[in-house]
Amino acid sequence: MTQDQTTGPDAATETPVPWRPSRTVAVVLAGGTGTRLGLGIPKQLLKIAGKPIIEHTLAVFEAAPEIDEIIVLMATGHVEDARQIVEKAGLRKVTKVIEGGDTRNATTRIALDAVGPADCNILFHDAVRPLLSGRIVRECVNALWTYTAVDVAIPSADTIIQVDDNDCITDIPVRSRLRRGQTPQAFRSPTIREAYRIAEGDPDFAATDDCGVVLRYLPGTPIKVIDGSDENIKVTHPVDVHLADKLFQLAAAQAPRLTDHRSYTEELTGRTIVVFGGSYGIGHELTELAQRYGAQVFPFSRSTTGTHVERAEDVEAALTTAFEATGRIDHVVVTAGILEKGALAEMDEETMDRLLQVNFVGPVTIARQALPYLQQTKGQLLLYTSSSYTRGRARYALYSATKAALVNLTQALADEWADVGVRVNCINPERTATPMRTRAFGEEPEHTLLAAEAVAQSSLDVLISDLTGQVIDVRRAPGDGPSVPAQPARAEAAAAATSAS
């Protein structure tokens, strides 16, 4: 159990003996039914960013080194659904998936029985808060070395008013002292058990908040509040589904980087990678890098192999070539793309058609043709978007629109192909030194551009990771100087237009 015993300057000293918990347990409360969302299934089973909400939530605790065990309290009639999610996702810390109670209080009591009598740390968390950060988990656990109860909250950006039965204002509390509560709520097990023991003797007991139970029935017990986050939203209403989906879309997933050349060689030797758009820019750098690590890489492009990504027959011929040479295809990478600037109303039909065909129809065509090969190896399709996918920009509306479409395609295919074990991800590099970018924008200061080699390295890390359905941001580190000289524009590069920007 990894726990930092550092205490802050405001640490309380109410505990006379050192706290020695046997373990730290995360209790995920998944008893909601989704009635406010108008769903036929519990909201925690709704898919966001390619996975059920509860799977995203459980994955946070699974990855947190401070957490030793996870217990899931599931809605009536859906325990088996949750168990299947746990098994399929390989969540090893989950020890129990059991049915929750009719109320939050009843569910907490069931959870306390499931945890057992040993002294331990307990974190109660809403299953429908899937954007919980590891930082919040860590701070909650650390705070339990000093406090017996911990809450998570954020400042209120709105003025809070108190009203009477006629909806007339009776008070306006000082906003600076108000917080909006979140979860997890964390406790030393003796504290929360004692609070509920006393509450059982109150015939009027009713609460939806475990810290509220401690506050009411163990007055004088300090409850530490740590900072939550705006992203840690609770999916309760229909609009929350859209907000959470967008937050996941904008969140930068991180692919683990291996430590040395030998590790990459062990991972990549014997793998077959097909790169559409492999002649210049990111595709070219990825081809060379993967080859150095022992992968068999087959680059295809319009200029060097006559491969048009929007033509199904060209794509199939390319895949067949790679498969016949090696007997397998592990990864298919699509860096091919073109960028044409200009006002939409002034753009000719030929240019618009070329943009749509290469930037969107091409990846769709490749995805369809590649699936049978990737199914055999449980491989991955890797696409490329650009920072313009988050909002359309004047004078390259179609380019921005196609890049946004690739993000949605990534998440949809990751969901569709999960059952056959094929992963789909999308790289989102910041402004990168490629021939395509130089052609569109001219020479730019070197220190403002990301090196194509850096994007290639991150791409390789994603290919050998277990990520799926993710948009992976690739950014220059703050303070970085120029990485490599910007690549000069070439006539061949303009014709091939095979590098993502």
UniProtKB/TrEMBL annotation:
For this protein, the record's CDD domains field holds:
CDP-ME_synthetase, SDR_c
InterPro entries per the UniProt record, alphabetical: CDP-ribitol_syn, IspD, IspD/TarI, IspD/TarI_cytidylyltransf_bact, NAD(P)-bd_dom_sf, Nucleotide-diphossugar_trans, Sc_DH/Rdtase_CS, SDR_fam
Q: Where is this site: Transition state stabilizer?
A: R36, K43
Region Disordered, residue ranges: 476-501
According to UniProt, the reaction catalysed is: 2-C-methyl-D-erythritol 4-phosphate + CTP + H(+) = 4-CDP-2-C-methyl-D-erythritol + diphosphate
Question: Per the UniProt record, which EC number(s) apply here?
Answer: 2.7.7.60
The metabolic or biological pathway listed in the UniProt record of this protein is: Isoprenoid biosynthesis; isopentenyl diphosphate biosynthesis via DXP pathway; isopentenyl diphosphate from 1-deoxy-D-xylulose 5-phosphate: step 2/6
A single Gene Ontology MF term assigned here is: 2-C-methyl-D-erythritol 4-phosphate cytidylyltransferase activity
Pfam families per UniProt: adh_short, IspD
UniProt biased composition (Low complexity) = 486-501
Q: Report the enzyme's class at the first EC level.
A: transferase
**Could you name the domain of life of the organism this protein comes from?**
Bacteria
Cite a single GO BP annotation: isopentenyl diphosphate biosynthetic process, methylerythritol 4-phosphate pathway
Where in the chain is the site Positions MEP for the nucleophilic attack? R175, K234
Keywords, in A-Z order: Isoprene biosynthesis, Nucleotidyltransferase, Transferase
Q: Which family does it belong to?
A: Belongs to the IspD/TarI cytidylyltransferase family. IspD subfamily.
NCBIfam families on file: PRK00155.1-3 (NF001183)
| Annotated function | Catalyzes the formation of 4-diphosphocytidyl-2-C-methyl-D-erythritol from CTP and 2-C-methyl-D-erythritol 4-phosphate (MEP).
Q: What is this protein called?
A: 2-C-methyl-D-erythritol 4-phosphate cytidylyltransferase
Q: Which organism is it from?
A: Micromonospora lupini str. Lupac 08
